[in-house]
Write the structure tokens for this entry.
Amino acid sequence: MLESIIWILLIGFFVGQIASRLKAPPLVGMVLVGILLGPQISNTIDSSILQAADSLRTIAVMVILMKAGLGLDREKLAQQGSVAIRLGFLPATCEAIVIALAAIWLLQFDF
């Protein structure tokens, strides 16, 4: 299992570097490696890793979100002013309202 994880990380890193040289985000290369090595295409990933995939996916999403958050530039956000705030809060608010209404309708909540 450890050997498979090391190979996946190494291949993902190197393909990410190739993607960055092609002027694409390294994450694109890493995701492509995951798709190609995954069970849908080549099925080269060890089955024990696939059993732990839920935990690994959660960790991967946390790392991606942290990198995205750390990559934000406060000065550029301040220059954008209210546009940045609207683009941040408006979609989240709309999504929350739609989910709440769907939950009320599907689960037949009565307040």
Observations:
- The two ends are 50 Å apart (CA to CA).
- The chain has a mean pLDDT of 85.
- The chain has six helices and no strands.
- The chain has two domains: 1-71, 73-111.
